[in-house]
Specification:
This protein has 279 residues and is mainly alpha-helical. The protein contains twelve helices and no strands.
Length: 279
């Protein structure tokens, strides 16, 4: 039976925080919980803001994990990289779930608050852009929406100057003795690399004998796991937008659903998907 008068202090719980760090202090909840500034009278705007703010927080963690995984692969620490990539996939599982909440907003509810967005759009998320650049989808034209923030531009340019997650994974194949063709001499990382038949064959060798090439096999599957969740995130984005605004243009000026559908065709790790046909 539960004691309704139980005092946690009697069990050792700290109850006084005068001059000491509390839960709210540690998490800076004073900043986080006061960062939602609605601009309309619509009660649904708070949902819209919180969904996007929490998504940006998950993206911040994803960026940290992808950077760490890339470094771990480059240094040959594959078990650690596998753990980081597994966590990144789970992060995108959380990002996928966020769309389920946003989809509770009806077209009429969104229409009531949409004017408050002005020209702002998720299309302008620099953290999302950084994730794409970090994993290998590198379109320098997408720097333009961030040109007004020099600090962000500097970070994105720095990412474009170095090998992506997938570049590093391919280089690890070469270090393990696999022939990766022209990718072995790649120096310019600012553009999205072209699919390479030599890399397909290298991954095919890995998949034909997993026990012999377990390190590369596990890495390949962790990368595919991540892209699987990433694709689901993009698909859920398209579905949510179509459900809420139909085929209207996006607030940021894109064609909306039509633009997002084109993004579904972007493949991050092409050889890891085509190798399945080659086996």
């Amino acid at each position: 039976m539960i004691d309704k008068h139980f005092n946690p202090a009697n069990d050792g719980a700290q109850m006084s925080f005068d001059g000491r760090m509390s839960y709210a202090d540690y998490l800076r909840l004073d900043l986080i919980l006061t960062a939602q500034h609605v601009r309309s009278s619509s009660p649904d705007e708070l949902l819209f803001i919180i969904q996007h703010q929490t998504s940006e927080l998950w993206m911040k963690l994803a960026i940290s994990e992808i950077n760490a995984a890339t470094l771990a692969i480059a240094e040959g620490h594959h078990p650690q990289a596998s753990k980081m990539l597994a966590r990144t996939a789970r992060i995108f599982e959380q990002l996928n779930s966020a769309w389920d909440v946003l989809r509770t907003m009806t077209p009429s509810e969104y229409a009531a608050m949409r004017p408050s967005l002005g020209q702002s759009s998720g299309f302008q998320s620099w953290q999302y852009r950084m994730i794409e650049y970090l994993v290998g989808n590198r379109n320098a034209a997408m720097l333009a929406p961030h040109a007004h923030v020099p600090e962000v531009m500097a970070e994105l340019e720095a990412v474009l100057a170095r090998p992506s997650l997938y570049d590093t994974a391919i280089q690890s194949l070469a270090k393990a003795g696999f022939d990766i063709g022209d990718d072995a001499q790649r120096k310019d990382f600012r553009t999205t690399r072209e699919a390479n038949p030599k890399v397909v064959e290298a991954w095919a060798q890995v998949y034909r004998d997993p026990s012999r090439h377990w390190t590369q096999y596990e890495l390949a599957e962790k990368l595919v796991d991540f892209e699987d969740y990433f694709r689901r995130w993009r698909f859920n984005h398209v579905t949510t937008v179509e459900r809420v605004i139909g085929f209207k243009r996006g607030t940021g000026g894109t064609s909306g659903v039509s633009y997002l559908r084109r993004m579904l065709d972007v493949v991050l790790f092409p050889e890891l998907w085509s190798v399945r046909t080659a086996l």
